[in-house]
UniProtKB/TrEMBL annotation:
It comes from the Eukaryota. The keyword Cell membrane does not apply. Keywords: Disulfide bond, Glycoprotein, Glycosidase, Hydrolase, Lipid metabolism, Lysosome, Signal. Residues 1-20 form the signal peptide. It comes from Amazona aestiva (Blue-fronted Amazon parrot). It catalyses: Hydrolysis of terminal, non-reducing alpha-D-galactose residues in alpha-D-galactosides, including galactose oligosaccharides, galactomannans and galactolipids; a globoside Gb3Cer + H2O = a beta-D-galactosyl-(1->4)-beta-D-glucosyl-(1<->1)-ceramide + D-galactose; a globoside Gb3Cer (d18:1(4E)) + H2O = a beta-D-Gal-(1->4)-beta-D-Glc-(1<->1)-Cer(d18:1(4E)) + D-galactose. Homodimer. Residues 314-400 form the Alpha galactosidase A C-terminal domain. Catalyzes the hydrolysis of glycosphingolipids and participates in their degradation in the lysosome. GO terms for cellular component: extracellular region; lysosome; membrane. One of its GO terms (molecular function) is alpha-galactosidase activity. This is Alpha-galactosidase. Its EC number is 3.2.1.-. It is an enzyme of class 3 (hydrolase).
Amino acid sequence: MAAVRWALLAAGAMAMAVRALDNGLAQTPPMGWLHWERFLCGTDCGTDPRRCVSERLFVEMADVMVAEGWRDVGYEFICIDDCWMAPTRDEQGRLQADPKRFPSGIRKLADYVHSKGLKLGIYSDVGNKTCAGFPGSYNHYDLDAQTFASWGVDLLKFDGCNSDTLELLAEGYRRMSLALNKTGRSIVYSCEWPFYLRPMKQPNYTEIKQYCNHWRNFFDVYDSWSSIKSILDWTALHQDSIVKIAGPGGWNDPDMLVIGNFGLSWDQAVTQMAMWAIMAAPLFMSNDLRHISPEAKWLLQNKEVIAINQDPLGKQGYQITKDKNFELWERPLSGQAYAVAVLNRQEIGGPRNFTFPLTFLGNGLACNPACSVWQVLPASRDCGVYSWVSSLSMEVNPTGTVLLKVVAL
């Protein structure tokens, strides 16, 4: 049975430790805001200044992150993605920001972000050009790392477009990691390495974790339920190889949170937030925090969900069973606790009940001899105390998720 197989695998995963990148960073999954999914490569500031990738966008987002409580619940990075650069390097061969859209320069922007108690992330690419065609870091790894450090950058998202061979791709990711560490500045290193390897070669996650703080495995997230489903399906299909690698210092990255945009229903937004917490995912929102509904804000700032995501034990969750369009996932937490997600994948009809024995959880130990069950999402409530031999029944809306915290007594 899937539940038994996964209980055994989970026990093995908990005993395994993979050496992480030795920079002391990302001991829990990083949290912040990233411009890409919502703002893409908007460069026409004349026509559309509020949606243009410019210093104004990042200054305004930093202001909102402080004023509206995002920083206080843990979202600390403001991250620039592709399209920030000028079309060419400067006379010294250094990357430079587009002078019209970033007239003050990245150093001044970093200073402003830091003055707000936040951190600045930036983007580059392992190849000759970025995915959008701007200058890449190939043959400039040390120079670019030094440039980013001199600007006060705190995170680098390093993409994998336009690299000629898999050998050059791997060499570039390794070299940039070493170059960042050599600067002496603490810079979180976000990689796309396994995603670009996978079509042709099985990634060596032990090696990747030695060089990267988190890494993308799958396609870009879109503002749609089909995109969220595809990420969850891919993760469950490959959990045997990826779950055991994740932990303090190195995380699987299923990509951005799109909650607060246009494509997800309320129940689907709950599902993304719950499942990203179960997967110990980096929490990088891509939305417009200047215009976000109170409901989306409540969900994204939910301290109970964030506490699960940021649990110091640092174990990634996994799917333990599937049954009639329901999925049951669990994540080991500190303090002999588990986070449990009950996901209803049916897209027709109304709410349905899913009943499962508590012996399914934690290799049979999560509720031995008894446990308390607390519902975190879609609303917080006490579900009571259960014995080891009990079953639990949850009503779940179509495409929705009930997120629970189970604590052994």
